[in-house]
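Weekly structure sync, notes
Attendees: PL (lead), two postdocs, one rotation student
Agenda item 3: pending single-chain targets
PL asked that the sequence for the first pending target be pasted directly into the notes so everyone works from the same version. It is reproduced below exactly as submitted, 110 residues in total.
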Amino acid sequence: MGALPAVGGPTGGLTVLDVAAFGSELAVYAAAAWWAWTRPARRAARLATTALTVAGLALLWGEFAAPTAAHPLHGAARAVFELCWYGAGSLAAYRAYTTRRRRTAAEPDL
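Predicted structure, written out during the meeting:
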């Protein structure tokens, strides 16, 4: 099996898998932010909730799953962490989407 193509040249750099992993990490942050922003509250509370949600997720990722993590997880623990991480992102996106659909369905037609 050959090596994955590298971004930035064949002598090193990021692989396509690295770029895809980073993109999926950003997707979890975006989904969590979208979910937090759709919560029913005043704008300042939603902004604070959104910032704290994304910061909390970034702290967890940086502590346990980042390439330079302080306490990197390995093996089954890493698999469970990532399953929960991406599961939380999927659930957040689903909840934000269904909340938005319920709100637009409840609005009267003009």
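Discussion points:
- Residues 65 and 82 are 8 Å apart (CA to CA).
- The beta strands are 6-7, 14-15.
Action: rotation student to compare against the earlier draft before next sync.
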